[in-house]
């Protein structure tokens, strides 16, 4: 009974003299009796009677309540409980304005509300409305220091008012406030919930009334008559008119191309190509800010440089707890205070690590910073935990990355190098080797012969007695191939100061134990002439010299991997490619649309973190360019990857099949047989994928019984069409876009989006510091090529191979800058919302069956977490359990705050 009450959000009416006796008048919902069951009709499709419905207090309403209908409308009072979230910290101006608002509230400059019914008034032909009510006691409660403050307001309505479907809010104060929720009490069917979670701007800045809808979902063609106009008006307001410079207080969602990464006004070195749009390199669209063009290039948008905020719609900005705890506070502390201090301390020398002890000392002893008096503020900033140990003596001390926690030499081993291809931070690139030797798909007239330099003799001795063809047929050979994505950029990359790279291919052999071992690495450079040696093959070492060459070759592979991971798999495929779907959802799906309610937690914070990335991470001379091998060509490489992006293959099962790493098999639990059975990312991912798909299937089938309902849902069709035709306009004509014509189509599309926003992003993001915080394990850039006998540097290499190795890795400045940033990006904030969780879990929707289905989904996520823990303790699974082997927890759903190398948030929130 308690659970049913929570699910339905229904409680017995408060006994108050100000309310008409609810046993005499039916005020809100229409009830009728059939075969001892009570059915509810709230202006939309009849719900199937569920256990929760039958057990709810509705079934206990007296016969008088059902039978007695007044002949004349009766006036009565209902009460609104309005929950406002306070700011924890206010600046002086905010404090003064808050006091001013408290004073003027007494003289009528207050917060006013108006209830709107789902029913039309037959006389006025407009929705029925209550009187205007104001929030009580704002001045008395303005100084409360609690996180949330509850205000009340009283409405007078007629007994034939019907069901409240919307509420308008007018803020006559000087300052915005965060409206969390409104609950209306006093109607016979119990409390009516309005989840708001929005900033309400002052009327002087935004004259229109804010509209909030109840938690009752409606498909567009089922919208009650009283709400039709409001539903359409709210969407029009959110779309804007596509003109003007956006203010930080705006709530307008619109599209633009990536023409804001460069700053040509600072000089040619800061100019960058535009991404997306006609005549430009194809790329997804971003959120439009409307800023004026630069002085020197009318097609480039002027920048708002750090630390000033860049525009995203007001409700997309980080909530204060996240802002203070993590992203804006800590990221800015790193970018604007710590990194300049690092540069001031070590950039003049820009010295290399002299040995492994230099790197180890970053964790044990710390790095001495040369802080002046003005930099003492650095010690008081909300820096990440990893760099929070700036103590007496100005020592910057890093936390030990997880890769060193079990075995500090694990990164040197070939088996760990291979294990990270399926259980590290970028486990989505490995493929089954289809043909040997591998063949390039690049144009041979531009990039030279497509044939690889790999020969059978390079791998034959590492195949456990098999021939190459036998190993291929037995599904024992796998490849991580970065040849085609890097080669077109290598001439330009290697012309940069302090950058030298190859285009790499690595072949792995699957052992009888289910582990991988690297058996050869191919290193390619652009062909400079018919007889140039542009390709080099490195095999596992047989002597000391070969060992150092092998280590350097693996470092170049890891550098390639770091670039593809960050620019293609992480940024492009989760952050950038999801942004159009999010923009379209806000523009085309009403907040009362059931699909909007489903997607809502999976869109949280994404526009804000993407805006921060464009401002400080992927911009010209930003962190990504500074720390990764491609340098100023990073985003062009990301755009090159977009040309091969396919939404229809972004779901996990389709991606595994595309890479040849799995084959369809109906006898397997998820309909797939993995060719590498102990593939931690895939094994855990398939469980989460199935859970998401099951939840989405239950949800979609509840609202759409047939294809006609999907095809006739104008908001749904507009969302999907706009996501493709505007948000991904450069690929709009691709034939591979899935159709949206059936419930099954919708289930597939939504499952893919939720998977990308939650589990896929988590798998690619939260291991960045745990694996990359030890730079030799995963160098983000390389500064030297591998010398051969004819190179002048070969003598230096032979004389001191360790010194040469470290001179090829990032410098001390590059490494410490990179470490500080990826630690920040790997951190869970205190207000993180993980998969299977929702804010206001019992009131985000008014459908009891959906609440029940969501709790089942949450229970399945908890079960999966236990199964992952069990797998990580299974000694037969050698890729996640063993001496010095890290457990694979990147897809373990829950996490505590901080850098934990686990946890699956609902959304791309960092």
TrEMBL record:
> Could you state a single Gene Ontology molecular function term?
metal ion binding
Where is the Lipoxygenase domain positioned along the sequence?
A: 217-910
Q: Where is this region: Disordered?
A: 279-312
The PLAT domain extends over 78-214
Q: What cofactor is needed?
A: Fe cation
Q: Where does the UniProt annotation place the signal sequence?
A: none
Quote the EC number.
Answer: 1.13.11.-
Q: What pathway is it annotated to? A: Lipid metabolism; oxylipin biosynthesis
Q: SMART domains, from UniProt? A: LH2
**Could you tell me where this protein is found in the cell?**
Plastid, Chloroplast
One annotated GO biological process: fatty acid biosynthetic process
Q: List GO terms (cellular component aspect).
A: chloroplast
**Keyword Membrane found:** no
The reply to whether Metal-binding figures as a keyword in the UniProt entry is: yes
What biological function has been recorded for the protein in this entry? Plant lipoxygenase may be involved in a number of diverse aspects of plant physiology including growth and development, pest resistance, and senescence or responses to wounding.
Q: How does it assemble?
A: Monomer.
Family, as annotated: Belongs to the lipoxygenase family.
- By what name is this protein known? Lipoxygenase
Taxonomic lineage of this organism? Eukaryota, Viridiplantae, Streptophyta, Embryophyta, Tracheophyta
């Amino acid at each position: 009974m308690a659970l049913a009450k929570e699910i339905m959000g229904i409680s017995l009416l408060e006994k108050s003299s100000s309310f008409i006796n609810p046993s005499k008048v039916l005020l809100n919902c229409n009830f009728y009796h059939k075969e001892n069951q009570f059915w509810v009709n709230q202006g939309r499709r009849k719900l199937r009677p569920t256990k929760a419905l039958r057990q709810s207090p509705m079934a206990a309403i007296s016969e008088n309540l059902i039978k007695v209908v007044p002949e004349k409308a009766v006036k009565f009072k209902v009460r609104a409980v309005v929950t406002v979230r306070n700011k924890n910290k206010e600046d002086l101006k905010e404090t003064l304005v808050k006091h001013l608002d408290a004073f003027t509230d007494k003289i009528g400059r207050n917060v006013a509300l108006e209830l709107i019914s789902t029913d039309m008034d037959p006389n006025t032909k407009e929705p029925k409305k209550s009187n205007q009510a104001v929030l009580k006691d704002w001045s008395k409660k303005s100084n409360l220091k609690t996180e949330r403050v509850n205000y009340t307001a009283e409405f007078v309505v007629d007994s034939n008012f019907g069901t409240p479907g919307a509420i308008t809010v007018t803020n006559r104060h000087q300052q915005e406030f965060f409206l969390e929720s409104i609950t209306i009490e006093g109607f016979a069917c119990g409390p009516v919930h309005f989840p708001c979670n929005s900033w309400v701007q002052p009327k002087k800045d935004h004259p229109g009334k804010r509209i909030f809808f109840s938690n009752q979902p409606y498909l567009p063609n089922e919208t009650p008559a009283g709400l039709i106009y409001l539903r359409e008006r709210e969407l029009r307001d959110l779309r804007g008119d596509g003109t003007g410079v956006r203010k930080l207080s705006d709530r307008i969602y619109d599209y633009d191309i990536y023409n804001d990464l460069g700053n040509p006004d600072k000089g040619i070195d800061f100019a960058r190509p535009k991404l997306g749009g006609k005549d430009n390199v194809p790329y997804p669209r971003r959120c439009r800010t409307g800023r004026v063009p630069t002085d020197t290039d009318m097609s480039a948008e002027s920048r708002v440089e750090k630390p000033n905020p860049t525009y995203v719609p007001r409700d997309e900005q980080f909530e204060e707890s996240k802002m203070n705890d993590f992203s804006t506070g800590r990221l800015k502390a790193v970018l604007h205070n710590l990194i300049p201090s690092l540069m001031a301390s070590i950039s003049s020398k820009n010295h290399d690590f002299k040995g492994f002890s230099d790197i180890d000392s970053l964790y044990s002893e710390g790095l001495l910073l040369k802080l002046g008096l003005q930099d003492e503020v650095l010690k008081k900033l909300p820096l990440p935990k990893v760099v929070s140990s700036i103590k007496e003596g100005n020592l910057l001390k890093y936390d030990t990355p997880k890769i060193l926690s079990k075995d500090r030499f694990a990164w040197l081993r070939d088996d760990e190098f291979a294990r990270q291809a399926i259980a590290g931070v970028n486990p989505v690139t490995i493929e089954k080797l289809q043909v040997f030797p591998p063949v390039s798909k690049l144009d041979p007239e531009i990039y030279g012969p497509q044939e690889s330099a790999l020969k059978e003799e390079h791998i034959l001795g590492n195949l456990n007695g098999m021939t190459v063809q036998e190993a291929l047929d037995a599904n024992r050979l796998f490849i991580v191939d970065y040849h085609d994505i890097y080669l077109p950029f290598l001439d330009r990359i290697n012309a940069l100061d302090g950058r030298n790279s190859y285009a790499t291919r690595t072949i792995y052999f699957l052992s009888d134990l289910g582990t991988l071992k690297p058996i050869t690495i191919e290193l390619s450079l652009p062909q400079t002439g018919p007889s140039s040696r542009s390709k080099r093959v490195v095999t596992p070492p047989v002597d000391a010299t070969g060992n150092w060459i092998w280590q350097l070759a693996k470092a170049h592979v890891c550098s390639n991997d770091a670039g593809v991971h960050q620019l293609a798999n992480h940024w492009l495929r989760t952050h950038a490619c999801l942004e159009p779907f999010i923009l379209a959802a806000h523009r085309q799906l009403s907040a009362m649309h059931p699909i909007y309610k489903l997607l809502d937690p999976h869109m949280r914070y994404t526009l804000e973190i993407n805006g921060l990335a464009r401002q400080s991470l992927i911009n010209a001379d930003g962190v990504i360019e500074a720390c990764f091998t491609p340098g100023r060509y990073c985003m062009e490489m990301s755009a090159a990857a977009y040309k091969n992006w396919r939404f229809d293959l972004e779901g996990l099962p389709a991606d595994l099949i595309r890479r040849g790493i799995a084959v369809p098999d109906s006898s397997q639990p998820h309909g797939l047989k993995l060719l590498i059975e102990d593939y931690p990312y895939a094994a855990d991912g398939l469980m989460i994928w199935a859970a998401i798909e099951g939840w989405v299937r239950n949800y979609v089938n509840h609202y759409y019984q047939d294809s006609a309902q999907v095809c006739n849902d104008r908001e749904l069709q507009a969302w999907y069409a706009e996501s493709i035709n505007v948000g991904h306009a450069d690929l709009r004509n691709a034939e591979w876009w899935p159709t949206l014509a059936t419930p099954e189509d919708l289930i597939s599309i939504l499952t893919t989006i939720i998977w990308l926003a939650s589990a896929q992003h988590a798998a690619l993001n939260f291991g960045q510091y745990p694996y990359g915080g030890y730079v030799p394990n995963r160098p983000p850039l390389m500064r030297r090529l591998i010398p051969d006998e004819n190179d002048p540097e070969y003598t230096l290499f032979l004389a001191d191979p360790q010194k040469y190795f470290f001179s090829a890795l990032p410098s001390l400045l590059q490494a410490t800058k990179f470490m500080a940033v990826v630690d920040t990006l790997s951190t869970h904030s205190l207000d993180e919302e993980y998969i299977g969780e929702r804010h206001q879990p019992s009131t985000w929707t008014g459908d009891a069956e959906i609440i029940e289905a969501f709790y089942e989904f949450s229970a399945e996520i908890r079960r999966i977490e236990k199964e992952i823990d069990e797998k990580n303790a299974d000694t037969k699974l050698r890729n996640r359990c063993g001496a010095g082997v890290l457990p694979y927890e990147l897809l373990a759903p829950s996490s505590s705050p901080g850098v934990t190398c686990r946890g699956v948030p609902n959304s791309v929130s960092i």
